[in-house]
Model the fold of this input.
Amino acid sequence: MEFIKFLNDNGLLNVAWVVLTVFGSLVMNELKKNMKNKYVINLLKQGADWIAALNAQNVSLSNSERFEKGRQYLNSIADKHGMSFLDTTINALLENAYQAYKQGGGDIHTQQHSDEQVVKVNLDDKGNHNDEPNQNMPNLNPDNK
Done:
């Protein structure tokens, strides 16, 4: 309490109030910027996931064209929010999204084949080969053997 009385007696209370107000507004502006950055980066991550999956399925585009379309899309999101990011940030977001898409089972262009082939052979009771499809069907008419 004596400190405030000292500031007031010496005319420094107003100066301290101005300093605290300016400092507080600077801190609040930085916090707002930080929150906006996090929000836009989260949007960019979601956009990168979406555009990576969409472009990976577009076989009419080359890999570099897919990547460039992704970059354009993410830059448009950032522009809508009045922000710009380094190319390395945009590239990293796209690459991470594409790798996650591949690990999730997407973008598999080759059909997986098994080297083993299953061959079903029908044998009758005596072990003879019989290709008739109804050979194992139960006899519903016991009089007709």
